[in-house]
Amino acid sequence: GRDGLAVLDWSQRKVAGAMRFAGNEVVTTYRWVKDDKLLIYNGEVFGWRDQPASYGELFIANADGSDFKPIYGYRVGGQQTGSRIPKASSTYGWGAFVSDLQAEPDHILIASYPWSGGPGTSTPTAYRVDLRTAVLSKVLKAPLTNAAFLATRDGEIRFATGVDQNDNERIYEFQANSS
C-alpha cells in the first residue's frame, strides 16, 4: 500500500536498488541526475487527499539504494558551532531541479522557492548543491516571482522566465560570464 522506487538491472533481470520513505511518505517523482544518482521528490499521503502533499524536499540516492538522504528542505542539516566550515542547513521552501552540472560529479543546480511567499508568489534563488554534504551555494536570485531558470548542462543560467504583477510574460537573459 505504499509507493517506493526500484532500480532494475535489465541485463541481469533483478532489482539493483530500492528506495522507500518511512510512515506516510511516498516517492512522487524522480530523475537521474548523474550516471549513478537519482534525485527524488517526496510527498505525504493523507486519507482525505487525492494526491500526496509535497513540502518541497529533495533527496538523493545512489542507484543501488545506498546513501539515501535529504539534500534540500526543512529536515536537512543540524546545529553548527565553533567552525567556519560550511554545513548543510534547513531550508523552508520548495526545491526544483535546474541542471545536472555535467562537469561536476558531486553537484547539481536547483531553484529554491521560499515558503514565505506561498505557492506561485515567491521569488526563487538558484543554488549549487553539494550532493555529498547538502551544502547550498547561492548562484543568483531571480528578477521576478515564480520564475523558472533555464541553464546549460554545465550550470550557466542563461534565462529566467515568469509572469510579472500585471500578468505579462517576461523573459530575462543573463549575460554569459566572460573571462
Helices and strands in order, then pairings?
Blueprint: E1 5-9, E2 14-19, E3 25-34, E4 37-44, E5 58-62, E6 69-72, E7 93-99, E8 107-114, E9 125-130, E10 136-141, E11 148-151, E12 157-163, E13 169-173
Antiparallel strand pairs: 1-2, 3-4, 4-5, 5-6, 7-8, 8-9, 9-10, 11-12, 12-13
Largest sheet: 4 strands, antiparallel
Percent in helix: under 10%
Radius of gyration: 17 Å
Unreliable parts: none
Shape estimate: globular
Q: What is the straight-line distance between the termini?
A: 55 Å
Structure description:
The protein is mainly beta and 179 residues long. Helices cover 0% and strands 45% of the residues. The chain has no helices and 13 strands. Strands 3-4-5-6 form a 4-stranded antiparallel β-sheet, with no helix packed on it. Strand 11 and strand 12 form a beta hairpin. It is globular, with a radius of gyration of 17 Å. The N and C termini lie far apart (55 Å).
Identify the notable features of this structure and list them briefly:
mainly beta; 179 residues; four-stranded antiparallel sheet; single chain
Write a compact overview of the structure shown.
The protein is mainly beta. 0% of the residues lie in helices and 45% in strands.
